[in-house]
Amino acid sequence: MLDAISFALMIVSPNLALMGLGFYLQKTGKINTHFIDTASNIVFNFALPCLLFFSVIKNNVDYDEQLALIMAGVVTTFVLFFGAEAYAKIFIKQVRDKGVFVQGVFRSNMAIISLSVATNAYGVAGTSVGAVYVGVITILY
Predict the structure, then answer these.
(1) What is the rounded distance in angstroms from the CA atom of residue 54 to the CA atom of residue 33?
(2) Of 109, 62, 102, which Cα lies nearest the Cα of 79?
(3) Model pLDDT, residue 108
């Protein structure tokens, strides 16, 4: 059991450390909103698409084996979306906040966090499987 906990901590600790560093740098004023916006644009418009493309191209990906994973992602996305819509309709009073809440629930940071975790856990093979999943789910979004 301790081996499983140690393995899980080794997988998620780089993400947690990077988030902590970002929080610290922003709180101390070493990075500002302009830097964060610029870095986000670079990551989402250039780095992430390149990572997804090269991960799929460089590895042998068996799409039939991933069908169950992709279908689970599609079903989960729809459940989260409609569940968040129902929750927002009942509990969120401000109309302008409902869309923000719903998008935050079903989109989250799946591409960034999950690809990092898959790479830490399974190496390059995990990245290629995650890249196909992220590509399909992104189209659904």
Answers:
(1) 30
(2) 102
(3) 65
Q: Is the dihedral of CA 85, 90, 95, 96 positive or negative?
A: negative
Whose tokens are 């996305």? That residue is 77
Contact 27, 19 (CB under 8 A): no
Residue with tokens 């399974």: 122
What count of residues does the chain have? Answer: 141
Query: H helices within the chain, ranges in order?
Result: 2-27, 33-42, 48-58, 67-91, 95-107, 115-140
pTM of model > 0.85: no
Residue 73, Cα to own-chain centre: how many angstroms?
A: 12
Cα Rg, the chain, nearest whole Å: 18
Rounded Cα distance, 106 and 103, in Å: 6
Q: Residue 124 — pLDDT band, cuts 50, 70, 90?
A: confident
CA distances (Å), origin 114, targets 95, 99, 122, 134? 31, 23, 12, 9
CB of 132 closer than 8 Å to CB of 59: no
